[in-house]
Amino acid sequence: MIDTIITARLYSRHTGHIAQGGIAIRQGIIVAVGNATDITPLASSKTHIHHVDPAHILLPGFVDSHQHLLSYVREHAERTSLWQVTNFAQLAHTLANTAQHLAHGQWIIGAGHDQGRYHEQRHPHRRELDAMLPHHPLLIHRACNHIALANSQALALAGITAHTLDPVGGRIGRDADGEPNGVLEESAVALVRAVVQKTPIDWQRGIARAMPEYHKRGITAIGEAALGHINGLGDLEVMQHAKQTGNLSLRVAYMGYGAVANAWLAGQHLITSDAWQQAPIIKFFGDGTLGGGSAWMSADFRDEPGNRGYPLYSDHDLTAAFTRAHCQGYQIAIHVIGDEAVAQAIRCLATVLATYPRHDHRHRLEHIESLRPGLAAQCAQLGIVAGVQPIFTWFEESDVARIPDQLMPYAHAWKTLQDAGAVLAFGSDNPVVPDFHPLKGIAAAVTRQTWRGDVINAHEAISWQTAIDAYTSGAAYSLQAEHRYGDLRRGLYADFVVIDDNPAVSIDQHQVIETWIDGKLIM
């Protein structure tokens, strides 16, 4: 028996546009899709018929291929939001308001700092932070979560002085005399995080409260992009418990990192794949970020002569790490933002694939914010998936402005990657942006507009259909889940989103009207 039939305007990669379409659902699975005249006769007296307004359009549920759900929960639980701060005076006011509710000596953790939004166009020095917050240790995470700022109390508690060596894979910002200036890059952030008195987090409550935020944006599946980066194997326990208790109502593909990745590579199969979860990917980090000045570039940052960022691996070590994961059948995903980091990852993957060929490996490069000629073609030739975040174009205009002039034509080069034949898989990298709505990312990919209305590389604009595909079928493909979701096709889970389609309104202003998961209307 058919449980539900939906009639609607449809679009997906598989169906194309169907002006008067229909979908038949049985036990959460699509059993037929096509013209409404062919689908509606399948109904019985017990079938629920749901008609979507012709002004709206039904798509596959959005698949955010690069998310950090646990970081999103943590940010809302323990961190002071700085997303709206645009100058040092506002920063001081926000921190003072937070301090009013705390005893002297208690830690304050900030999130969403971005010096590119500030009138001062720089990070505050630790002494300026000391003046803003004299009675509390302070750690402020930059929006990208790869850079942090610490005041003198926090540095002292972590034992960081002029004599502290930079950790492997990170840097301690310093004044000319060698004294720490408060800026911590990459692995150096962990030196302070290790001594923070953490507020206990009710993870299950946080996950349950986060689900409506995803559903109202039309998101039905995610790639959890670094499981293990918060509490090691504890991250896995949290997610498994959320699934068992029903707090988690998204389909999730996990990218194991740190202790989780090490356990998987040691043969500990800690997740059983089912309708709601799978664990196919090992995550690596190849460089830092544009906004943090730690992305590895082939030329100096435009606003910072002498700085080209830096790699987090040598070619030898990265090839060895890739080989271990690849030869155990895992998919590889590596964070690479600067063009030099992209080139290194491609080079090392090419070495691994030449030595140990594997069909349909789907190894992924994450972010790819800066390219140079030839790299997109190499990605396509090797079968590498481009896991990119068009919402960065919308929100991170100041970061893109740091890219060297000679590389600027290849910034956020989604069309170049598409034209070369690489699979595009869209995501948001939430919570590194103030909103993770797929429609904002789709709008930025199609118009190349930023939130201010400026345009970045108009020649890299892609079509609406291509952007929708990248946020549905392409994203599902990148997670090895295209046989489960991401399209309107018989045998897939009945996960959909209905959006308005008013041509008089810009794409970023379109609204999610309905979200369906497992054949059930949940929003």
Helix and strand layout, with pairings?
Layout: E1 4-12, E2 16-26, E3 29-35, H1 36-39, E4 48-51, E5 56-60, E6 62-67, H2 69-78, E7 80-81, H3 88-99, E8 108-113, H4 126-132, E9 138-142, E10 147-150, H5 152-157, E11 170-174, E12 180-186, H6 189-193, H7 203-215, E13 219-227, H8 233-245, E14 251-256, H9 259-265, E15 277-285, H10 315-327, E16 331-336, H11 339-355, E17 364-367, H12 375-382, E18 385-388, H13 391-395, H14 397-400, H15 414-420, E19 424-426, H16 438-447, H17 464-470, H18 473-478, E20 496-500, E21 512-517, E22 520-521
Parallel strand pairs: 1-4, 6-13, 7-8, 8-9, 13-14, 14-15, 15-16, 16-17, 17-18, 18-19
Antiparallel strand pairs: 1-2, 2-3, 5-20, 9-10, 10-12, 11-12, 20-21, 21-22
Helix pairs in contact: 2-7, 10-11, 11-12, 12-15
What does this structure look like?
This protein is of the alpha/beta class and 523 residues long. Helix content is 29%, strand content 24%. It contains 18 helices and 22 strands. The strands form 4 sheets. It has an 8-stranded parallel β-sheet with strand order 6-13-14-15-16-17-18-19. A hairpin with a 2-residue loop joins strand 2 (16-26) and strand 3. Helix 10 packs across helix 11 (339-355), helix 11 (339-355) runs parallel beside helix 12 and helix 12 (375-382) packs across helix 15 (414-420).
